[in-house]
Amino acid sequence: MQTFIKTQAALIAGSVADFLVTFLLVNHFNCWYIAGTLGGNITGAAAQFVLSRNWVFNTCGKRVRDQLIKFILMWLGNIALSVAGVYALTNFVHLHYLVSKLIVSVVLGVSYTYLVSKKFVFI
């Protein structure tokens, strides 16, 4: 349970970075919300990798290259699911893009990201 809570805290920190970059790209740099979502996801992923490696799973002694490759594979799936989910909720359900992003982030965070991090990336 402690690992799950720490993972969620790392995901929240990554999500703060993600949402901030998404908001800035869309609202201040006039990027399309899908491009903003992608940029935010990449930023949040970087923050979450550092926190997960150093704090959540405490795997600093292991080769960073191996973990980074697995993490990138996990996040490619996460980004694809995130972008598809945000697009679907925004265009078909007509939610605001940030509400869509929040819903998708929570669903992925407590399911896909946690499980893949624990069972594949940081083992």
Describe the structure in your own words.
The protein is mainly alpha-helical. It has one domain. 84% of the residues lie in helices and 0% in strands. α2 runs antiparallel to α3. The longest helix has 28 residues, at 64-91. 33% of the residues are buried. The mean pLDDT is 92.
Could you outline the blueprint of secondary structure elements for this entry?
Blueprint (H helix, E strand, L loop, with lengths): L1 H26 L5 H24 L7 H28 L5 H25 L2
Number of domains: 1
The major pleated sheet works out as: none
Helix content: over 70%
Q: Beta-strand percentage?
A: under 5%
Indicate the structural class: mainly alpha
Helix tally equals 4
**Radius of gyration, in angstroms, nearest whole number:** 14 Å
Distance between the termini: 16 Å
Give a quick summary of the entry.
The protein has helices spanning 2-27, 33-56, 64-91, 97-121. The protein is an all-alpha fold and 123 residues long. The model has no long low-confidence stretch (mean pLDDT 92).
Q: What attributes characterize this protein structure?
A:
123 residues, mainly alpha, 84% helix
